[in-house]
Write a structure and sequence with these properties.
Blueprint lengths: L12 E6 L13 H9 L4 E5 L10 H10 L7 E6 L1 H12 L4 E5 L9 H6 L8 H6 L3 E7 L7 H11 L2 E5 L11 H11 L1
Length: 191
């Protein structure tokens, strides 16, 4: 029971950045380390970024339990997933409630790639209804000039999730060292 006049403590928000497969040291890959630092500067927010187990194949059977048990993703977590990390974010949200997901370069099929197929994310249809029910919001970043993910794949995610799609034509696979548009969304959704 909260006493009259007492200030209720605000629940600390968590952000988990889930990298794409093959990223190496994630703190020095793409925009991950930059975003981690920027998010951790925000008041009442903590950001988790880790070198993932099984970083090449990014198996669902390894990453989803790691996200749940080690990174402690829960209903107060915004998951930012890039490439394979976007698929991990979607599969996680099929099973568990999260605050929201921000998807970067997401796709719906293994694109005919044996390594992607071995990850397990594409072995069954996507449960769009469960993902939407388990998230307060879905924001998606995609670029028509992505050399790895055809636009049709990214659009299929947007259609399935009715996501807030941020469409670009000049960001490729979003592999820059900074990502200010992402920070704008994080600030908008968290504060």
């Amino acid at each position: 029971m909260v006493e009259r006049g007492a200030i209720q403590k605000r629940v600390k928000m968590k952000v988990a950045i889930i990298p794409g497969n093959g990223a190496g040291d994630v703190f020095h890959a793409n925009w991950y380390g930059w975003a981690h630092k920027q998010i951790n500067k925000m008041e009442n927010v903590s950001c988790d970024l880790r070198n993932m187990p099984d970083p090449i194949t990014a198996k669902e059977s390894i990453w989803i339990p790691f996200m749940r048990e080690q990174m402690e993703c829960d209903e107060n977590t915004v998951i930012i997933g890039h490439s394979s990390g976007a698929e991990a974010a979607m599969r996680f949200a099929e099973k568990y409630k999260v605050k929201g997901i921000i998807l970067v370069s997401a796709c719906v099929t293994d694109l005919g790639d044996d390594n992607e197929r071995a990850s397990g994310y594409y072995s069954r249809p996507w449960d769009w209804t469960s993902i939407k029910a388990n998230t307060d919001f879905v924001v998606q970043f995609g670029s028509t000039d992505d050399p790895f993910i055809p636009w049709e794949e990214q659009q299929a995610v947007a259609n399935g999730l009715s996501s807030d799609l941020r469409k670009f034509s000049d960001k490729g696979h979003f592999m820059n060292s900074s990502f200010p548009q992402l920070m704008e969304v994080v600030k908008e959704k968290i504060q």
